[in-house]
Amino acid sequence: MPYLANPVVTVNSVDLTGYCTGATYNYRKDSLESTVFGNTARNFQAGLENNEVTLDLFLSYGTGEVWATLEGLVGVSTTITLKPSSGNDAPTNPKSILTGAVLFELPVVSATVGELSQISVTFQGGTYSKDTTNP
Amino acid sequence: MSWVVVLPQVGVPGTPFVPPPGVNVEALLAGGFIRPASKDDARPAPRRKVTRKTPEET
């Protein structure tokens, strides 16, 4: 059944839900082609995990806000969590965790006249896991 | 090494911060979200002095 998107987002353990307008977590594995002579169709097998989380955020420079959270994470490993809603972790509200992801690019200023400043950041790499039991 | 929560975005301020796996503690320290725990953090809060009123005062 469709649900109204209202996820909880943490980056490096900091709750950025109140600044986030979009979130996409792609759990992905590289596709390695294994087609050989004699095959009548292309064959693939899974390679390494190649995960990615993209967040759309309102940019703010206040204490404990978006800039303070992300500035120290450029080029270093961190953990991101995404959960469909604010309830306890459960099979119907699984918390997706990306451990060991790296942010390689952080917009310093993103400004358009008459609009709230927004940025889009992408964390790459890391290992996917899921928590359905802890609060 | 142990840390204490400073800002509510990472927990209840004043409580110990236990970093989840993979969390970058240096970035949290730099951003002012947490601070290193000091000896004072381990001490219990001072007890309030209880003064009882005499019957004449009531």
The coarse silhouette of chain A is globular
Largest sheet of chain A: 8 strands, antiparallel
Structural class of chain A: mainly beta
DSSP summary, beta strand count of chain A: 10
Q: Give the mean pLDDT of chain B.
A: 85
Largest interface: A-B, 19 and 17 residues
- Main pleated sheet of chain B: 3 strands, antiparallel
Q: Runs of chain B with pLDDT <50, length 5+?
A: none
Helix fraction of chain A, binned, reads under 10%
Structural overview:
Chain A is mainly beta and 135 residues long. Helix content of chain A is 4%, strand content 44%. Chain A contains 1 helix and 10 strands. Chain A has one helix at 66-70; strands at 8-11, 14-15, 20-26, 29-33, 44-49, 52-58, 77-83, 95-103, 118-124, 127-131. In chain A, the strands form 2 sheets. In chain A, strands 1, 2, 3, 6, 7, 8, 9 and 10 form an 8-stranded antiparallel sheet that branches. In chain A, strand 1 and strand 2 form a beta hairpin. The model of chain A has no long low-confidence stretch (mean pLDDT 94). Chain B has 58 residues and is of the alpha+beta class. Chain B contains 2 helices and 3 strands, in the order ββαβα. Chain B has helices at residues 25-30, 39-42, and strands at residues 3-5, 16-17, 34-36. A 3-stranded antiparallel sheet of chain B has the order 2-1-3. The mean pLDDT of chain B is 85. The A-B interface holds A 12-16, 63-64, 68-69, 71-73, 76-79, 99-100, 126 and B 7-10, 19-24, 26-28, 30-33.
What's a concise summary of this model?
The complex is a heterodimer of chains A (135) and B (58). Chain A has 135 residues and is mostly beta strands. Chain A is 4% helix and 44% strand.
